[in-house]
Amino acid sequence: MKILVGLGTCGIAAGAEKTYQALENVREAGTATFELEKTGCIGMCYREPLVEIRSDDGSRVQYGNVSADKVERLLSEHVAQGKTIEDWLVWADDGRGTERAYFSHQTRIVLRNCGKINPESLEDYLAADGYKALRQVLQQNDPDALIAAIVDSGLRGRGGAGFLTGMKWRFTRLAEGDRKFIICNADEGDPGAFMDRSVLESDPHSVLEGMAIGAFAIGAHDGYIYVRAEYPKAIERLNIAIAQAEAAGFLGDDVCGTGFCFHVKLKEGAGAFVCGEETALMASIEGRRGMPRMRPPFPATKGLWECPTSINNVETFANVPWIVLNGAKSFAAIGTANSKGTKVFAMAGKIKRGGLVEVPMGISIHDIVFDVCGGIKQDKKFKTVQMGGPSGGFIPAELQDTVIDYESINKTGAIMGSGGLVVMDETTCMVDVTRFFLEFTQRESCGKCTFCRVGTKRMLEVLTRICNGEGREGDVDLLEHLAQLVKNTSLCGLGQTAPNPVLTAIKYFRSEFEAHIANKRCPAHQCKPLLTYTILDSCVGCLLCAKVCPTKAITGELKKVHVLDQSKCTHCGECHKACRVDAIAVY
Amino acid sequence: MTDTGEPHMSEHRKFDFKKQHFAGEEGRLIPLLQRAQETDGYITRERIAEIHAQCGIPLAQIYGVATFYAQFRLHPVGKNLIRVCHGTACHVSGANDITKAIEDTLGVCNGETTPDRLFTIETVSCLGCCSLAPVIMVNHTTHGNLTEKEVKKVLKQYQKAAIGEVQ
User: Fold this and answer.
1) Which residues of chain B make contact with A428, given a CB cutoff of 8 A?
2) How far is B44 from chain A (nearest CA, A)?
3) Is the pLDDT score of A177 beyond 90?
4) Which residue in A225, A319, A347, A439 has the fewest CB atoms around it within 10 Å?
5) DSSP of chain B, one letter per residue?
6) The CATH number, out of the four listed (3.40.50.11540, 3.30.70.330, 1.20.120.790, 3.30.70.141), of the domain defined by the range A122-331
């Protein structure tokens, strides 16, 4: 019997390391016999810590929320007596479990090994057909045929823009230059996105294999992985994987004994969102300030240190070995006419099952939110999803039948982006969230382009005053005007897309902006300066609210309805939080 | 950010930056600064001078890079670095209230260090644990699914641990 504990960042944050330690203590003490193994993230962040039990006959049972204190029962019931603990059961391969729907709608290509293998074990990866694709490609020794296959598969860059991966490789291959580079962009900076982190933590070898295949295709002998410094676990596991692959001859001077030479170096980012943009990323690898430059020349002709360079995303690379092994046709059979394969989404926000899902292209937003992820927390009203982070936009509930496909998403004004999908309910204020995104892009603007530097600042000021109840007539038009200017005059993706959240919010939720400006009201009750608190007759007179009020605006006697002096109220909301009988109304 | 005084290093150990394994490597400035910050907790003027003298990188470039990236700090930090996540998921789940609760408890604002040098509060864009929102990271430990009450409890743990060390 083998026990696997999911030790991704989410799992560790939920206490999985303590669970692992508790199991390890028992194993060492010898009171129970089982094998103990680490694994990555299976994607069900909402039920972490997750523990899987694999019996000797190969059957698998997964338990959720297994904190360290539950280890004793796990061992006494399941391990000792072979009894399934029904109330913790998440999923079992015989069809039992409450969370089956979460998996049954998914198609796992990128996440094929995540949560199944030990990410720190090369043997595990090899047993899952690891490095088979690389060997095959090197034996066939036909880079042009390989590139043709990737083009035929229809794989498009998963970093956001959706350029055909095979074409990018072809351009880089055809470019003149003695030295070429391949770069893995793992600078996942969109707030609300964590797909790449999870893949790197759970299956780092698949990314290395994809890179090695790409390097062979374009004729590169050096590769860089540019990874966010905020992802220490991913960095740790990548370093382990690189060392293992080098020792086993899957990287190095003589890859698989074929004479092909390929070295990979890890570069840690230093916390700049703009470095997700390819020319800025290369500037950062070169040791300079991460500022983008004009394109063309594109990196395929003049990239890192002026050499032809192909930059691809983590998820893109993780797809490559699967395509090589299963054929371009099987990949192209999944998805829609122009968007092939699957897409991994990081589901977060007001959703019941938050975590990682991998769904075939062509599935609707409604199906992801409700069928896969179980709908909205506390069954509140679904308002909108935000796709593509600060570069993306909002897709309102009315358009929830929109299918996941690069072109369909673009039509709504949002973008596919890297895969962050944040679900929002009726308690989310669109003006406030829009301000949040603008605050982000404003802070992260590198300052090179005037309109991105100054224009976003002006937009942020307008949004801030609207949230503070100081919005002026014409502010919405002003925002739209500035948005167009910033879009048209910025060099890189950051500036060109920064106004997207504002534009889509105005497009779909204009009335909310108007309520803030004209009526000085926040319909979602989020913008504090616009809220009015009143004490209802149901007040039991407990004095709690009067005690917490920082300005002594509430007065009253015990067991008598209290009074709130609006002229003293600073809208801090402490009274509302303190009231135990819901006798303070907010509107 | 408030300047909390002079560097509190007991002594300044000189580095041989040329001997670092990335010496001579193209684009080595960022790894050099990362190594310096790892050792000292922040980038000191002395280290910048050393990098300049040993590697011949112009001071203007070193300062330019050190101030461009959010990771690099030019001021010392407290014993415990609190990173409050303000990603999208954390924002809609009340990250602002969490920041306020931390500020109220410690009596300093975001970006500042407590007078006892025990805590520094920092805002970060996203820690990538969105499904556990709202999240904070204290040093290398992530704490998720927080409420204002919970976060005060977390801080208390670190305060207690510090008192334990003194006694």
Assistant:
1) 92
2) 17
3) yes
4) A439
5) -----S---SS-PPP-GGGSTTTT-TT-HHHHHHHHHHHHSS--HHHHHHHHHHH---HHHHHHHHHHSTT--SS---SEEEEEE-SHHHHHTTHHHHHHHHHHHHT--TT-B-TTSSEEEEEES--S-GGG-S-EEETTEEE-S--HHHHHHHHHHHHHHHHHHH-
6) 3.40.50.11540
